[in-house]
Design a protein that fits this description.
The chain is mainly α. Helices cover about 70% and strands about 0% of the residues. It starts with a helix and ends with a helix. About 25% of the residues are buried. It comes from Marmota monax (Woodchuck).
Length: about 375
């Protein structure tokens, strides 16, 4: 009789857990799509701003449009003249229009067979990063470093967390990397070493930057700091680094745009239903392309765009949704396999404390970036 009661109790618990998981999946899936859509919109807005901004910085100067691009200690305003009567902001809008007309139409089609394009883009990134790190180290080694950063600057913390979240939004590539691995015995160590390598690379790039350039002269688009004659003597290298975002971002923009369009279609998809041609081929691509272009038209403040995208959409994708998913999956596993069952493949962070810590970290990112926006707007 006791065994029957225990069995019934376990079945009730399993049913309750299954209902909880079903509800979580229903709400969680919609929440996930909402977060990923906002994140991809932020990505596209950043890309749509970065390319015209880089072109404007390289081709415009205060007086004579010299080949050095960004001049030493030059402080530009959007109202400064660029070409004749055209202001810098006018040049930015022209470049944005050209960028939209050239790459926007890809949103209405499918982008396939991008393997070699992605390999070329990755190669260009590694070359550009290596050049910037080496040039910064050489400049510092010669005693020409301009940066004298303070030991700590609390005001920078307001936007740091959001930028960090955006910078480490590389876990979306993990499934495609992990799935083909046949033996997953050492997978945790490999992923850990991968993230340590990423952190070390970010640290090297960041610390060489803050000691090579003054904080008030560092530009949001870091590559543009090397488009100066006093930093890089070779014109070809200056041009390559100055236009580096144009090459790499332009190849990624259509891929991300198509991904966002497909997420919109999946979010509203109903089993067995199809979309009318106009909705499928016109409406979804249009709502994908127009909002980020409008944001880019209104602002090219890349630091704020990165911080906002990382803090709001990024924390949802990277912290909040995985934390709740892990918590409920662990509870469901305990009910299914019995309490006290130990998974030999469990994470070192299996304690519930880490779930709370991740949520606390997500709230901190959200809070600090929101405070940064409020304080920046009120000039405090």
């Amino acid at each position: 009789m006791e065994k029957v009661e225990v069995l019934c109790q376990r079945r009730v618990q399993c049913l309750s857990s299954s209902l909880t998981m079903a509800l979580l999946l229903s709400v969680g899936v919609n929440l996930f799509y909402f977060c990923i859509i906002i994140y991809l919109y932020g990505d596209l807005a950043i890309y749509a701003s970065a390319v015209p901004f880089s072109l404007m910085q390289v081709t415009c100067s205060t007086t004579d449009n010299d080949s050095c691009g960004v001049e030493t200690d030059a402080k530009y305003n959007d109202t400064d003249l660029c070409w004749g009567p055209l202001r810098r902001v006018d040049a930015y809008h022209i470049y944005l229009a050209v960028f939209t007309l050239l790459l926007g139409p890809f949103t209405f089609f499918d982008v396939q067979k991008t393997k070699y394009l992605q390999i070329l883009t990755s190669l260009m990134r590694w070359i550009a990063f290596a050049i910037m790190i080496v040039l910064a180290l050489v400049r510092i080694g010669k005693g020409q470093g301009e940066g004298h950063p303070p030991l700590a600057d609390p005001s920078g913390l307001r936007n740091l967390l959001g930028v960090c979240v955006y910078s480490f939004m590389c876990q979306h590539s993990l499934p495609s990397l992990v799935t083909p691995v046949s033996s997953k015995r050492y997978l945790t160590r490999l992923v850990f070493l991968d993230y340590v390598l990423i952190l070390a690379f970010y640290g090297l790039l960041s610390f060489t930057a803050i000691f090579c350039f003054r904080g008030d002269s560092l530009m949001d688009m870091y590559t543009l700091n090397f488009a100066r004659c006093d930093v890089v003597g070779l014109a070809a290298v200056r041009l390559f680094l100055g236009l580096f975002p144009v090459f790499t971002i332009s190849t990624n923009f259509p891929i991300i745009a198509v991904t966002l369009r497909n997420n919109w279609k999946t979010l509203f998809h109903r089993e067995g239903g199809t979309y009318p041609w106009v909705v499928d081929r016109v409406v979804f691509p249009t709502i994908t392309l127009v909002p980020p272009v409008l944001v880019a038209f209104c602002t090219h403040d890349l630091e704020s765009l990165v911080g906002i995208t990382g803090a709001y959409a990024g924390t949802g994708i990277q912290f909040v949704i995985p934390a709740f998913l892990v918590y409920h999956c662990r509870k469901d596993t305990q009910v299914t396999f019995g309490y006290g069952t130990v998974n030999k493949h469990r994470s070192p962070f299996h304690h519930t404390f880490w779930v709370g810590f991740v949520l606390l970290w997500a709230f901190s990112c959200f809070f600090f970036v929101t405070a940064n926006i409020v304080l920046s707007e009120t000039k405090l």
